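Shipment paperwork, digital attachment
Item: protein structure file
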Amino acid sequence: MHELRGKAWDANLPFGGARLRDVAPDRTAYINGISWSKGLEYTAMQRAAEENFDFEHRRGDGEDPWTAKSGAFFAENLTSLPMERAIASWSTDGGSGSEWNQLNHSNGSYSGGAGHIYSLLDPANHYFAQA
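Attachment content:
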């Protein structure tokens, strides 16, 4: 995660209609501004179990994923790949169709096929977990 954020900061990717360095001016603070959350890890395990059935951004009862732990998270990145490979596929290792390129083409927009990488790079997100 820190390596990805470092690459993004060095490239000064567009982000939210600005440039990443405009919204996160201190490289070290930005890179180290995200850390593992044990609490989110439990929620990630719960969501992973739920996603074994239908693999979509809905819970088993049809509710939004955010209801798994109210107010605890902003984004959900579903993947069947190990985290390191998933991040690589969303970023520069994903080739021309990567979310890295989509983020560039969409002027840093959350939409446009770049939602996963956007949530990983978002300076407002300080915690993450995976299961």
